[in-house]
Amino acid sequence: MSPKFAAPSATAIPLITVKSDDLDVTLANLPNAAASWLRNKGFNASIGAIEALPNADGTIKAVYAGIGAKGQSRVRFALAAAAAKLPAGTYTLDTMLTGPALDEAALGLLLTTYKFDRYKSGAAKDIVFVLPAGVDAERIEALAAGECLTRDLINTPASDMGPAELEEAAVALAKQHGANCTVIKGDDLLKQNHPLIHTVGRASPRTSRLIDLSWGTTGPKLTLVGKGVCFDTGGLNLKPGASMGLMKKDMGGAATVLGLAHMIMALKTPLQLRILIPAVENSVDGSAFRPGDVLTSRKGLTVEINNTDAEGRLVLADALALADEGKPDHIISMATLTGAARVAVGPDLAPFYTTDDAMARVLAQAAEETADPVWQMPFHDPYESMIEPQIADLDNAPSGGFAGSITAALFLRRFVTDTPYTHFDIYGWNPVAAPARPKGGAGMGARAILAALPEVLGL
């Protein structure tokens, strides 16, 4: 789905935001009957508080929505907490919010309308929001559409979202924006020197592939690489059932870069964009790769396999080597890569690593402005020895259990030689529903990246 704002309407119901520390002033400026109604209903303007003011005939005259106190930072998309409770109808935002706070509120309204109902019968509640004054509709709608694309791809079960279906999504996106999309499949991966991608996916009956989308002919070059493991059993190091339950989301990196790509292309960002997605399923049969195998990557580096469940970094390695050969101005990889990242920062923060100091600085500011939190992690060079086994150049799963996200990032960095590089180790999932973010698939870091690109790439 691609949520959009409606045109101004004389019949739209005002949705009026109220900060809790401005409540007394707001009530004092209302007619006595309206102020008494809100007081008697217990409206306190806390986050998520909502109260409808009726007309004499019982229809809704206006809706008051609480957004909490000034400077509150514990809840993103505060207005969306109230908007989710609205009855069906068309609403127009009446608010004193400006700048990034207004953009956040507007985006939250659109994201509130998101529903993943592909497998459900019955009509969803029809809520429409009029374009708020002072909002760049094109930009906010592009952000919402990119996020909804990411959510839809992650939420789709693996039975309907394998490598072929992920390719179809990329091809559809390319067609929508006039981009080019080529795909290398099956044994052609070996012929064109993508051995790790081929090896990881060879035990699955669903053919592995490398999706390569390009758009734009002028401006700086940006390459996005997304992990597209459409389902991860763990391979011969089979995951326990509880750990396998969410593995439809293991293509969350691919879903996120496709959502980000939509934002970039929809907004006609003046750059040359390339998307690389190694799309595989990590399955088990007699041809599955084994613990103890030593594999040779596209870059020529050898990798000792100490855990077949550390497959994401393998498919990314070949894609990153290809990306680096194109000599772009920046490479960004996004992957649901390690449980260690979740232990470190939880499900809400998108941890990132970067070799570019400017990217680190700009991302931090952009994340705050776009309500898209990120957190910098270190490429800690002393840990390099942890990814160097005795019999190969690299170890895909160092023993010891320490610094799992950092060692994975250091592993990936070995495949980017000449290019500024940023890596995101995301979760791609909301375990608990939150304002504008239902339980399920979630984009992480895309809006912050989009906002950082102008300064980082000199656009």
From TrEMBL:
EC numbers for this chain: 3.4.11.1
GO molecular function annotations of the record: manganese ion binding; metalloaminopeptidase activity
GO biological process: proteolysis
Keywords: Aminopeptidase, Hydrolase, Manganese, Protease
A Pfam entry, by short name: Peptidase_M17_N_1
Domain Cytosol aminopeptidase residues, every copy: 307-314
InterPro entries: Leucine_aapep/pepB, Macro_dom-like, Peptidase_M17_C, Peptidase_M17_N_1
PROSITE patterns to which the protein is assigned, alphabetical: CYTOSOL_AP
Gene Ontology cellular component terms for the protein in this record: cytoplasm
Domain of life: Bacteria
Family: Belongs to the peptidase M17 family.
Protein name listed in UniProt: Cytosol aminopeptidase
UniProt organism field: Octadecabacter ascidiaceicola
Classification of source organism: Bacteria, Pseudomonadati, Pseudomonadota, Alphaproteobacteria, Rhodobacterales
Gene: pepA_2
